[in-house]
Design a protein that fits this description.
656 residues; alpha/beta; 20-stranded mixed sheet; 4-stranded antiparallel sheet; 9 helices; 39 strands; 25% helix; elongated
Length: 656
C-alpha cells in the first residue's frame, strides 16, 4: 500500500540522487555536436548521457534561417551511482588497512593438551598492546583431579616467556589408553585431498599429537601436500567427528600468457584535460595527441611463462599448461629494439592503436580545430580539413596544411605552412614557419618565414617578414598597408591604395632580424645616453657643492658614490651596445643580396620603399616599376617579368 510517508521517503531519496547529478547546457549546430561537447565537459562518453531539449535546432534553407540546438545534458543517474560505489569501495580499502593494523594488537593465548601420559602446554605471547597470559589462569586450567604431577613454577615461567610455538611438558596424569581419541583417515578417489575424522577422548584419555597425525597419513601413502599448519591448528583447536583436511594436492601452476605492456594510453577516454591555474578545465587543451620522438619506447612484450607441474597427495604428477605467446603488434613507423621485445618509434609523431597495431602517424588529420579538438601540438605534419577557429593554436614539427580559413590564431611549424583560404588575424594572430608560408590572403596578421611567403590575392595591414622573398602573383596581388620585410625581393601587382591615406612600408636588401635588432639597440642606446646625461649632471652638481663646502653630508657623499658607480655601469652597457650595433651595420653593408621591389601594376602615393636603408617615398602613381639600389640611391627601372624566378610550391599556390 502506498502511503504519504513512503512517498515522502522516496522523494527524499530522489532529491538526494538529483543533487549528485551535474548538468551542463550546450549549444551547437547539430544534436550530435551538442552531445560531443557535453561529453568533454562532463568527462564521460556520449553513451552515458541523457538530455532535455530546451531549443530545437533548424538546419535552415540554403544557409538562411539557421537555428542552433540548445540542450541540457546530464549523466545517467545509474552511472553516477556506480561511480559513487566505486569511490566508496576505494575508501573502504583504506579502512581495511586500519583494521589490519588493529588486528596486530592481539592478546596472548594458551593451550593445554594431554599426549600419552604427559600434560603439555603451548603459550602464545601477545602482539602489540595485547594482554599477556595470566599465569594463575594457566595454572587453574591445568589442574585436574587425575593429575599425578604439575610443575606450577614452570607454568609461571612459560606464561611469561612463551613456548615458541611448541608444546612443552609440565606434568603427568593417570592415563587410560582405552579412553584415547580415535583417528580415521580418508583419501579421496582422485588423490587430491586427505581428511581426518577424530572422536573426542573420554576422561583419562589422550589427545592426538601432530606427529601421530602426520605419521598416520604418511602410512596411508600420502607423500605430498601435507598441510602441517592445518594439523597444528587442529591440535590447538580440535574439531571432533567432522572431516578435517590435512593434505591437499600440490596444484599445477599454469604459465601466464604473454601480453603487451603499453607505454602510452590506449583508451582515449582516460586522457586527462589540462587545468588552468585556478583549477578550471581548459577545454582548449584536450591532450588528445600523444606525441613521441624517434627511438622512444612505446610498448614491451612480457614473455609467456612456463607452467610448474603439481602432484597429487600420493605423488602422481599433475601437468601444467604453459603460457600462450602473442604476436608483437608492430605497425607503421615502429620497429623492434635490439632485445626483440621492446617496440620503439621509428619516426616522431602521434602514437595510436590502429586495429591492434601500434602505429606512429607522421600526419595528424582533423576536420577542423575547435572546441572538439582543442589546441594541437604535434611532432609531425598536421592536416586540417576545415577552419581554425579564433583563439586556438596549431604547433607542429613538420608541415601544417589548412584547407579552410584561419582566424585570430597562433600557427607555428617546423616546415611549410599552407593555408588554402586566408588569414583574418584581427591584429592578434601570428603565423611562424621555419620554411615557407603559402596563403590566399593575409589580413591584420603577423607572419614570419625563414624562406618564402607566397600569397595569391592580397596582404592587408599586416607585419610580414621573409628571410628570402615575398611574392604576390594572383590577379588581385596587392599590398595595402602594413610593414613588409624581405632580404631578397618583394613582388606584387599593386602596392598601396589608390585612395591614399594608408601607409605601406616595404623594406628589402638586408637581414630583417638584424635590422630589427639594430632598431631595438638604437632605442635602448638612446635611453642609456639620456640616463648618462642625468647621472653626469647629478655628479657635477654634487662635486661643485663639495668644492664649495669642502665636504658633503654623509647621505650626499653616499649618493655621489652611487651615481659614479651607476655611470660606470651605464658606460659599460653603452660600449657593449655600440659594439653590437657596429657589428650589425658591418654585416648589413657586406650583405651580397642587393634586394629589389617589383610592381607589375601600380605603386600608389604614400608608399615608402627602403632598399638597403635608402628610402624612396612615392609621391605620385608609378606603373610597371622595379625599385633597386645603385651607388647609395634607390633607383627606379622598368619592370621586367622575364626576370622573375619561378618558385615551386604546393598545388593551388603556383607563383606564376
Amino acid at each position: 500500500m502506498v502511503t504519504l510517508e513512503k512517498l515522502r521517503i522516496d522523494m527524499e531519496k530522489q532529491l538526494k540522487l538529483d543533487k549528485e547529478i551535474h548538468t551542463v547546457v550546450v549549444q551547437a549546430d547539430t544534436l550530435e555536436e551538442c552531445l560531443d561537447d557535453a561529453a568533454v565537459q562532463l568527462e564521460t562518453v556520449v553513451r552515458n548521457l541523457e538530455y532535455e531539449v530546451e531549443e530545437k535546432g533548424y538546419p535552415g534553407i540554403m544557409g538562411l534561417m539557421k537555428k542552433p540546438w540548445k540542450i541540457r545534458v546530464y549523466e545517467n543517474p545509474f552511472v553516477v551511482q556506480k561511480k559513487k560505489k566505486e569511490q566508496a569501495a576505494a575508501d573502504s580499502s583504506s579502512k581495511d588497512e586500519i583494521i589490519e593494523a588493529e588486528i596486530l594488537n592481539l592478546d596472548g593465548k594458551f593451550y593445554i593438551r594431554r599426549f600419552g601420559a604427559g600434560i603439555f602446554v603451548k603459550v602464545v605471547l601477545p602482539q602489540g598492546t595485547g594482554a599477556p597470559v595470566d599465569d594463575m589462569d594457566l595454572i587453574s586450567e591445568a589442574r585436574r583431579p587425575d593429575n599425578t604431577s604439575l610443575d606450577e613454577d614452570k607454568l609461571k615461567e612459560l606464561a611469561k616467556n612463551g613456548t615458541d610455538g611448541e608444546y612443552v611438558e609440565v606434568g603427568s596424569y593417570n592415563h587410560i589408553a582405552a579412553a584415547d581419541a580415535i583417528l580415521a583417515v580418508d583419501i579421496s578417489k582422485d588423490e587430491m585431498q586427505a581428511t581426518i575424522t577424530v572422536s573426542a577422548p573420554s576422561p583419562g584419555g589422550s589427545d592426538i599429537p601432530a606427529e601421530k597425525i602426520i605419521n598416520t597419513i604418511k602410512g596411508q601413502g600420502v607423500v605430498a601436500g601435507i598441510e602441517e599448519d592445518k594439523i597444528e591448528a587442529f591440535v590447538d583447536m580440535p574439531v571432533y567427528n567432522v572431516p578435517y583436511e590435512v593434505a591437499a594436492a600440490v596444484q599445477p601452476v599454469h604459465g601466464t600468457d604473454a601480453y603487451i605492456e603499453y607505454k602510452f594510453e590506449t583508451d582515449r577516454t582516460k586522457l586527462k584535460l589540462k587545468e588552468t591555474e585556478n583549477g578550471q578545465v581548459d577545454f582548449k587543451e584536450l591532450n588528445l595527441i600523444q606525441n613521441v620522438v624517434e627511438g622512444q619506447p612505446l610498448a614491451i612484450k612480457v614473455l609467456p611463462q612456463r607452467g610448474k607441474g603439481g602432484k597429487t597427495i600420493m605423488g602422481r604428477y599433475l601437468e601444467a599448461r604453459n603460457g600462450k605467446d602473442v604476436p608483437i603488434p608492430i605497425g607503421q613507423n615502429t620497429k623492434l629494439d635490439k632485445d626483440g621485445r621492446t617496440i620503439i618509434a621509428e619516426k616522431s609523431g602521434h602514437v595510436t592503436l590502429v586495429g591492434d597495431k601500434i602505429t606512429v602517424e607522421e600526419v595528424y588529420e582533423v576536420p577542423g580545430v575547435n572546441i572538439k579538438t582543442g589546441n594541437i601540438t604535434y611532432m609531425g605534419t598536421v592536416v586540417c580539413r576545415g577552419n581554425v577557429d579564433d583563439g586556438f593554436s596549431i604547433k607542429a614539427d613538420g608541415n601544417i596544411e589548412i584547407y579552410g580559413s584561419v582566424g585570430n590564431c597562433h600557427i607555428e611549424a617546423g616546415g611549410d605552412i599552407v593555408i588554402s583560404q586566408g588569414v583574418m588575424g584581427r591584429d592578434e594572430g601570428e603565423i611562424i614557419s621555419s620554411k615557407s608560408v603559402w596563403a590566399r590572403f593575409l589580413q591584420n596578421v603577423k607572419v614570419t618565414a625563414e624562406e618564402y611567403i607566397v600569397v595569391n590575392d592580397n596582404i592587408m595591414n599586416s607585419e610580414v617578414t621573409a628571410m628570402k622573398k615575398i611574392l604576390l602573383k594572383g590577379k588581385r596581388a596587392q599590398i595595402i598597408g602594413g610593414h613588409l620585410f624581405a632580404t631578397e625581393e618583394i613582388t606584387a601587382k599593386n602596392v598601396g591604395s589608390s585612395g591614399g591615406g594608408i601607409e605601406t612600408i616595404l623594406e628589402v636588401g638586408y637581414d630583417p632580424r638584424k635590422k630589427q635588432r639594430l632598431l631595438e639597440l638604437s632605442e635602448m642606446h638612446a635611453n642609456i645616453l639620456k640616463q648618462l646625461e642625468e647621472v653626469d649632471l647629478n655628479i657635477q652638481t654634487l662635486e661643485n657643492n663639495k668644492k664649495v663646502r669642502r665636504s658633503l653630508p654623509k647621505e650626499k657623499e653616499e649618493a655621489l658614490n652611487n651615481f659614479k658607480a651607476q655611470r660606470i655601469e651605464l658606460m659599460d652597457e653603452s660600449e657593449k651596445m655600440t659594439a653590437e650595433m657596429d657589428d650589425i651595420n658591418s654585416r648589413l653593408r657586406e650583405l651580397k643580396v642587393v634586394g629589389c621591389v617589383n610592381a607589375s601594376g601600380s605603386v600608389y602615393p604614400g608608399c615608402k620603399i627602403y632598399v638597403r636603408d635608402e628610402l624612396d617615398e612615392v609621391r605620385s602613381e608609378t606603373k610597371g616599376v622595379t625599385f633597386y639600389y645603385d651607388n647609395g640611391f634607390v633607383k627606379r627601372g622598368k619592370f621586367d617579368p622575364t626576370q622573375q624566378q619561378e618558385i615551386e610550391g604546393p598545388d593551388g599556390f603556383a607563383t606564376s
